[in-house]
Amino acid sequence: MPVDLYIGGPEHAVGHLIYSRIWNRYLYNKGLAPTKEPFKKLVHQGMILGENGIKMGKRFPEFVVNPSDIIRDYGADTLRLYEMFMGPLEVSKPWSKQGVEGARRFVNRVWTFITDADNITSENNDALTKVYHQTVKKVTEDFEDLAFNTAISQMMIFMNAAYKEGKCPKEYAEGFVKMFSCICPHAGEEMWEILGHDSSIAYAEWPTFDEEAVKEDSVEIGIQVNGKVRGTVSLALDEDKDSALSKAKEIPGVKNFIDGKTLVKEIYVPGKIINIVVK
Questions:
Q1: What are the structural domains, with CATH classification, of the chain?
Q2: Burial of 33 (0-12, 13-18, 19+ CB in 10 A)
Q3: Among 79, 134, 128, CA closest to 107
């Protein structure tokens, strides 16, 4: 005591917040409980609605989704991944059969890549280094914030990059599986064993990321002409003003608005924006 994190639905707020807090305060006042409040943090998760957006229940039994049926048809890992990928934890979301099928495809996609020995290599050409470290950083931080949907999105980005490259260093594959297993523990445990480990992945050390490796070499910034955005340009983080303006003026959407005009002012805020004023 106190509990670090308590997740409870708003429909049970009376039991969660009144009974538990009142009884805890009574026991605290009697010197029998160590803390005034029983929970350090409370998070209310949203409800999963029927496909029509209406709350599942006895009134609309035809829209009720039985978790056992989903596990039977798609597997428990797919159910877990889909529910966490539907949206922010605290928001109510409608069920979608297409969404479940999409989640299943991603689980299969991960399994197919990781379990193919030809895809896993002991060599590292650094092609996946940046996206791997970005993935470890984002997933780690998103898990802390209970932002599971965006963590899964980042895992998808990494897996797309791995497929595009065709090879993945074993170190990165293992780090990915460690993160993936938090969402899909059954597939994660199996893949961990296939990668050559005898002990459970539950006891494996969490992957770490290199801050230098996650830094971007370039940034996409907007180009304004007379206060309206007319295009974007990719610039190096240390791009000088003359070079940045030169590249910006070659963007077709910008060029059309400045050709034949008198230049009044040019503003370049590195990493932020380019503003060109003409008349």
A1: 1-44 (no CATH), 97-213 (1.10.730.10), 218-278 (3.10.20.590)
A2: middle
A3: 79
Interior/surface letters 184-220, b for 16+ CB within 10 angstroms, e for the rest: bbebbbbbbeebeeeeebeebeebebeeeebeeeeee
- Cis, bond preceding 169 (omega within 30 deg of 0): no
Q: Are 170 and 111 in contact (CB under 8 A)?
A: no
Per-residue pLDDT of the chain (279 residues; tens, 9 = 90+): 899 998 887 777 777 778 888 899 999 999 999 999 999 988 888 888 888 888 887 777 878 889 999 999 999 999 999 999 999 998 899 999 999 999 999 999 999 999 999 999 999 998 999 999 999 999 999 999 999 999 999 999 999 999 999 999 999 999 999 999 999 999 999 999 999 999 999 999 999 988 877 777 778 889 999 888 888 888 887 788 888 888 898 888 888 888 888 888 899 988 888 999 988
**Residue 264, token pair as written in the block:** 């009044």
Distance between CA atoms of residues 91 and 134, nearest Å: 26
Distance CA 167, CA 14 (A): 53
Q: Which amino acid is at 198?
A: D
Calculate ∠ Cα 215-213-176, nearest 5°.
Answer: 115
Alpha helix positions (H), 30-183: 67-74, 76-85, 97-114, 129-144, 148-165, 170-183
